[in-house]
Amino acid sequence: MRRRKIEELFFKLLMVLATIIVSGSFFLIVGTIFFKGVPYMNLDMITKTPGGGFYIGKEGGILNAIIGSFYVAGGATVLGLLISIPVAIFINMYMDGKTFLVGTLRMAFDVLFGIPSIVYGAFGFLIMIYFGIRASLLGGIIAVTLLVIPILVRTLDEVIRTVPLELRDATLSLGSTRWEMAKVVLRQIRPGIFTAILLSFGRAIGDVASVLFTAGFSDNIPTSLHEPAATLPLAIFFQLSSPVEEVQGRGYASALILTIIVLIITVLSEILIKKLSKHKL
Amino acid sequence: MLVFTLASVSLLLVIGIGLYYKSIPLLHRLSLTELLTSSIWKPLKGLFGFFPFIMGTLWVTGIAIIIALPLCLFAALYIVEYAPTRVRRILSPFVNLLSGIPPVIFGVWGVLFIIPFIQKYVAPHFVEFSTGYSVLAGGIVLAVMIFPLIVSIISEVLRTIPQELKDASLSLGATKWETIKHVVLRKALPGIIAAAVLAISRAFGETIAVLMVCGNNAVVPHSVFDPGYPLPALIANNYGEMLSIPLYDSALMFAALLLFIIILLFNIISRVILTRLERRLAA
Prior knowledge:
By secondary structure, chain A is mostly helical.
C-alpha cells in the first residue's frame, strides 16, 4: 500500500512540475523580452523611421515597420474575411445532408491550417512571379491572406455551429431564403467574427516566413500597394543580425513592441471568447 | 460562395502543383534518390544534395518532440485530472497566450536565453567548445513553441474519456494514478499519437525561430551540440540569391515541395484519428 501511495505522490509531483514548466515558459519568454527590451525603449522607436539604414544606422525607430505590419496584417485580414465569411456560410447553410462532403471540406481547411507559413511564402512568391508583381505591400498582403484564410474559416465555422439549429429552422419556416437566414445568423455571431478578426490579425502581424519573399523591406513608410513594405517581425530579424550594438538593441526594443501588440490582441480575444460562451443559449 | 469555397479548398492542390511545376527542372537534372541522399550542397556547381537539410530537420524536430511530449502529457493530465477548477481557470489562459506569441519572438528568446545557457552551462559538460548555436537550441525553442498545441489537443482528448470508466477503476480500489496509467492513458493513446503527429508536422515547418538559433551549417549533425540546417531555414536564408544561380530557385521550391508533402501527409493522418475520436464521442 505504501509503495502505491508513494508512486501516486511521485507522479503527481511530476505533473505539477511539468505544468509549472509549460505555463512558466510563457513568463520566461515575456520576461526575457521585457528585461532586454525595456532599456532600449524610447519614444523615437515608435515615432521615427530608421536613420541611416536599418542595418547600420544608429538613429531613429521602426515606425516604418510598425505601419507596414499593420498594413499587411490589416489588408490580409480584410481580404481574408471577404473570402472566409461566404465560405463558412456555404459550408454550414447550403450543404444540408451532405455530411461526408462537409466533413471533407472541414478537414481540408484543418490541413490548410497546418501548412507552414514558409510554404505559403514560397507559393505567394510563385504567384508574384507568374503575374509579374515585385516584392511589395501587395505581394505581402496576398501571401498573408492565403495564410489567414484557414484560420478565419475554421474560427467562423466553429462560431456558426454554436448558433442553435432552431433559430435557423425558425427563420426558414417563416419563408425566408437561405441567404436571409444567413444574414440572421451573421448578426447572431457578430462577437465571434471579431474573435476571428483578432486571431487572424494576431497571426498575420507576427509571421515572418510568409512576408520574407513577398513584402520586401524598406526604410520608408509605403505609400502605395506597389512599394516594398517593412514588417515588424522582419525588422526584428534583420536588426538582430546587425553587427552594430545600437541596432541590436533596437531589435530587442522592436521585439518588445511586437510582444506587447500581440499580447493585447490575444487578451482581447480571450475576453471576447469568454463573453461569447457566457451568452451562449 | 461555391466559387470561393472551391477556390480556397483547391489551394491545397494548387500549392502542390505550383511547387512541383517549379521543381521539374531540378528533377530533370538529378534523380530523386540523388537529391535526397547526397550530402554535397554546391549550388554554384549545380550539386544539390538535400541530405544534410533533411537530417537537420529530423534532429531538430526529434529533440523538440522528445522534450515537449512527456512534459505536455503530464501537464495536460494535471490540468484535466487533478487541478481544482480555480487553478485550471488561471492556467489555461497562459497556454493560449503562449500560442499567440509570434515565432520571431521565440527566436529572439532563443538567442538571448537558450544560446548563452547552452554555451555556458550545458555544453561545457559534454564537449570542448560550442557556440550554443546548435540543433539542441533549435529543439528547445521548437519544443516550447509546440507546448500549447500538444497541451490543448491532449487535454481535449482526455476530456472525451467517459467518467464511468474512471469511476469503475477507482471503485475497484485503484489510486488516481493507477486509473490514469491503466485506463485513461490506454483510452487516450490514439489521441496522444495524433497530437504528437500534428506537433511534429508543426515543428517541421517552423522557420524563423529555428533559423535564428540553429547555426545554419550545411553538414549532417552528429551530436546535439552540432549546428544544423533545417529545410525551412534553407528556403528562408537563400531566397535572395535564388534567381541569380541556375536551378537554385528550382532547388528551393523543391525543398518547399518536400515540406509541403510531408506536412500534408502528417496532417491528414492526425486529423483522421482526431475526427474518429470526435465521432466516437458524439455517438
